[in-house]
């Protein structure tokens, strides 16, 4: 007859109990969505609503359907065939930026202007290492409208997208004594120019051209006046929350470099008729 030390029996019982607890814990993690381990692999992609076209184009079927557009297609390409899942969240740009800054948004990716770095407020986020598009502001006016001067801009109005603000634009407005009129999106701004509520629309030229095309307007009937000497050109890139961790951020940077090298970035820009796709070194 084999005898067992009480310490051996107790140890075996403890081991069995521990295995049972671990098994039940694993089952709970799998069943309880509140503690589902998959959440660690879910990344929130912030979409700035209708004001973001054609970088982000809302699905006409509703907000529960994925957006399209240059940035949206690019983000999906970055995370394709990976362990990460994307969850879209649509917010107006002003609210999105506020949530990004005060911590209400977690584990997120968004698009940004490189010039936002000058604001000095993004300590909890990291800008991607890869630039995507050149971003140069222009004033658009009907061909029959005289070229912009400070006096004409003050008298006839300059419209800009609601919630948009970045380095250089305040100085431009101050030098010329401007109070921008605001529109909810690009097509609304173009309609304001067509209807005579404003003579000039300030925005990146290919985004204006996209809005003109969507409204069935002939671009030849409009003139574009570059503002490079007034507002320094910048570039579009991605912005990532630091709670994603360096591993995810490195993954995003590597994928962006790959998409830039193989020409995918340039193809996406051409798909949406965007100018200034940044070619890698």
How is this structure best described in words?
- This protein is 37% helix and 20% strand.
- The protein has 281 residues and is α/β, with parallel strands linked by helices.
- The chain has three domains: 29 residues; 135 residues, D-Maltodextrin-Binding Protein, domain 2 (3-Layer(aba) Sandwich), CATH 3.40.190.10; 90 residues, D-Maltodextrin-Binding Protein, domain 2 (3-Layer(aba) Sandwich).
- Strands 1, 2, 3, 4, 5 and 11 form a six-stranded mixed beta sheet that branches.
- The radius of gyration is 25 Å and the shape is globular.
- Strand 1, helix 2 and strand 2 form a beta-alpha-beta unit.
Question: What's the quick description here?
Answer:
This protein is of the alpha/beta class and 281 residues long. It has nine helices and eleven strands.
Largest beta-sheet details? 6 strands, mixed
From the coordinates shown, what is the CATH architecture of the largest domain?
Answer: 3-Layer(aba) Sandwich
Query: What is the CATH fold-level name of the largest domain?
Result: D-Maltodextrin-Binding Protein, domain 2
Structural class: alpha/beta
Overall pLDDT confidence: 86
Uncertain residue segments: 1-36
- Rg to the nearest angstrom? 25 Å
The CATH superfamily label of the largest domain reads: Periplasmic binding protein-like II
Number of strands: 11
The rounded distance between the terminal residues' Cα atoms is 78 Å
Q: What gross morphology would you assign?
A: globular
Output the CATH class name of the largest domain: Alpha Beta
With helices defined by DSSP (H or I, 4 residues minimum), what is the helix count? 9
Which sequence of SSEs, written as H and E, runs from N to C?
HEHEHEEEEHEHEHEHEEHH
Helix content, binned percent: 25-40%
Question: How many domain modules?
Answer: 3
Strand content: 15-25%
